[in-house]
Amino acid sequence: MSKPLNIGEVAAQLGVSTHTLRYYEQAGLLRPVGRTAAGHRLYSPADLDWLQFVMRLKATGMSIAGMQAFAALRSQGNVSIGARREMLEAHREAVLARIADLQTNLETITAKIGFYEEAERHAQQAGKGEGNEKRNGGRKVT
């Protein structure tokens, strides 16, 4: 088994601040972690795994309230497995919808790049002394 990690080590591994970890614990996203005799937090490998999952939920747009609801279900144990699965399925659908929106936006950007490439070709063929409207068939380049 891996040795427990202190808050600074966990923060460094996750790329978050120690303040964020304390907040997550305060917000109920993390079960109370172990402590040293001096009261310093000690995170187990299981704590780190859970925090990595929480960070994935956050990165994919789940709200703090959503993560809190998921953490509350998790704390109920096996009786909430179905509810957790349903919650993750709904989140997956939201993520897929965001990906589809991003794909549409990317296609629009790619089309605009093609427009500018074509405008540049026309400009090079027509010479540098003419205005954008003349080089692009009277169309203004936007």
TrEMBL record:
Keywords from the named record: Coiled coil, DNA-binding
PROSITE patterns tied to this protein: HTH_MERR_1, HTH_MERR_2
Keyword hit for Ubl conjugation: no
Disordered, as annotated region: 122-142
Name of the molecule in the record: MerR family transcriptional regulator
UniProt keyword annotation of Coiled coil present: yes
Ranges of residues in domain HTH merR-type: 1-73
Coiled-coil parts of chain: 85-119
